[in-house]
Structures are given as structure tokens and as C-alpha cells.
Design brief:
Layout: E1 27-29, E2 36-40, H1 50-62
Length: about 60
Amino acid sequence: MDESNGSHEPYCGPPAPAPREADGPPFADCVLCRKPTEYPESVKGPTLCPVCEWQEAQRTACSG
């Protein structure tokens, strides 16, 4: 394997930046339980409420 070019590609890309928390309503709904999240409606991508976010982190941490 030739690594003379000095570039190392990461196995996984860089972590996605965390969505910016909203200063006030309207808040985006959680994609799992439909409760309001801490993120503005304008945030792109799936949003999770604090409870679902914590549960999802637990599932991915234990998945190995």
C-alpha cells in the first residue's frame, strides 16, 4: 500500500455539526415521538427531543 502522498482518508467522515439550539418557538418536532425539540424548525435533517436523543446515543454506543 503506497502512502507516499501523505494523505490519510478517515474511515468515517467528520462528525456532523450539532444543530443550533433555538432561541424561542417555533421548535422542530422530534421525528420519533413528535414532542418539541430544542432545535428551530429551520434546522435541516432529523431532529430528536432530549429523551430520544439520549436513547439513540445509548443504542449506538451499545451496538458495537
